[in-house]
Request: fold
Amino acid sequence: MHPPDAEARQTDEFTRLLIEFYERFSSWEQDVVRGTGITLQQMHTLEILGSCGEMRMKELAEKMSVTTGSLTVLVDRLVRAELVERKANPQDRRSIQVGLTPAGVRLFEEHHKLHGQLSQDMAGALSPEDLALFMDMLRRVVRRF
Reply:
């Protein structure tokens, strides 16, 4: 067996760093939602609705990369928790839109504030130039991913 070449070593290191970042970020997210009474996936639903506003179930399912059937179960639980409400779509009465209730808005805003603090902490590890470069790289990766 041949020793790995420079490209293979770089790929291995990149993979290790991605996994380590994911594990740390995931752990942070789990800590933040602990005690809120909702799951991480439910919080992500509130984040999307809080950032994007009311939307049709189909649009929300696409943003979350889940089926509309899975989303229906998720939204049902959020409706019971009085964090989300269903409304008739004013442009198409057959279509249902979902949006945050006042309690959902409060929870979204609290969570969003914590994300902002995390972003500031992470940005503090970088120079302004490196931060701009990192953000540009993330945009490119997100577009391809």
About this structure: The chain has a mean pLDDT of 92. The helical segments are 6-33, 40-52, 57-64, 68-80, 102-123, 128-144. The beta strands are 55-56, 84-88, 96-100.
